[in-house]
Amino acid sequence: MLTKPQRVYHWDRRTSSISSDRLSDADLPHLGQAIAVYRGRLGERLGRVRDAARAALEGVRPDRVEAVVQLLDDVATYEWPRGRIQAARRVDAFVRAAAQHPLLDAAAAPAILTAAFDAAPAPADLGEQVALLYADYPEFHRLRAFPDDYRAEDLRADYDLAQAQALLYSATRVTVTCRADFKHILQYARLARLLTRVEPGPDGGYRFVMDGPNSVLRQTHAYGVDFARFLAALVQAKDWELTAEIALRRGWAPLRFALRSADGLASRVPAPALFDSNTEAALAAKFGATRAGWRLHREGAVFAAGDQLVVPDFVFTHEDGTRVALEIVGYWTPEYLRAKLAKLGRVRGPNLLVAVPRRLALGTGALPHKVLPFRTRLLLKDLLPRLEAFRQR
Fold first, then answer.
1. Angle at the Cα of 25 (from 21 to 27), degrees rounded to 5?
2. Less Cβ crowding at N or C end of the chain, within 10 Å?
3. CB–CB of 355/330 below 8 Å?
């Protein structure tokens, strides 16, 4: 992803709106030339490759160049010496040079650098010797490979998505309305570690409100990066609309940033697997598709909780028709936990089982549903009896 200094956006003060930058068809030939630079300079230093790519991008608007070069670097593969050998060589060269201080004879430098490489032959060119001495520094990393199937259209798509992601670094609240792929979008939000409320949306859809930094957390760049990670998965879903409040500077009124699935943003990275914690993944793997007459489903029910919705992590269906929803309560902040338990307390569905870490179970108070305490993972020997208890009602 890009850094804040590399982002380009368009700000409309009159409407208090902001939009991320996007490339046009006219930029494609220049992008192709930059890709050709990377393909044709295998083995060269990162610094030289980047300079050549900047020259190839001369026809691109200047404020876009560094972002494009960064994305090309992300696609490329570089190599450099690992371990401490480079630092040891530098120290050896500095110690040898210090013994001859002040070192005024330029002819003495090659001998010092050659000695620092011990038995390894040093290049005759003094500049290459220095490059090898600092080979572990990013500027001197060597370009090893660049994908043959990466096209100018791919680079354009990466740029458009990366600029939208970079704007979300400064988001304080993100709202997503969807009419399809509901379960996947919720899972993407959880995988990105976003504190999410689910509400009924217009036209029978759902609305996800993610405002962690604005409510129970301090606003941080790290949480903005989580918003950006979520967007990379969201663009692979269908029929959604996103609205974000962007605070470019502390004390400024937030600007409105809007995206839709119809805007055509795309991600070349596959969406992540649909488990948002090791606890859930381990439980699903151990339980299997069926066990003792119960079948496991992934998010197969939606419960009303006042004006919000609860989407449980699992639903278990028995052969006799009994259905039990399992919600696993994680722990992020005390405020979030209290809000989560309060919401679960408003659910009046009879077959809701709440799994809570044992250290928190005593704080569940008068939660009107079955509580399943666990230490670090959910055990089948604890889960199955509680599922059976619902059949006996």
1. 70
2. C
3. no
Residues 6+ apart with CB under 8 A from 6: 66, 67, 70, 166
Strand order in the sheet with 303-305: 9-12, 17-20, 255-260, 240-246, 171-178, 206-210, 196-200, 308-310, 303-305
Q: Where are the alpha helices (DSSP H) in the chain?
A: 28-40, 46-56, 62-75, 85-99, 108-116, 126-133, 152-168, 182-191, 212-215, 221-234, 278-287, 334-345, 358-361, 380-391
- Per DSSP, the residues of 27-67 read GHHHHHHHHHHHHH-TTSBHHHHHHHHHHHTTTS-HHHHHH
The pLDDT tens digits for 318-335 are: 999 998 888 887 655 566
**Is the confidence at residue 275, as pLDDT, over 70?**
no
Count of alpha carbons within 13 Å of 259, Cβ hemisphere only?
Answer: 29
Q: What is the pLDDT of residue 190?
A: 75
Which amino acid is located at 258 in the chain? A
Confidence label for 218 from pLDDT (cuts 50, 70 and 90): very low
Per-residue pLDDT of 154-202, as tens digits, reads 999 999 999 999 999 999 889 999 988 887 888 788 778 787 888 888 7
**Whether pTM exceeds 0.85:** no
Using CA atoms, how far apart are residues 301 and 318, in angstroms rounded to an integer? 15
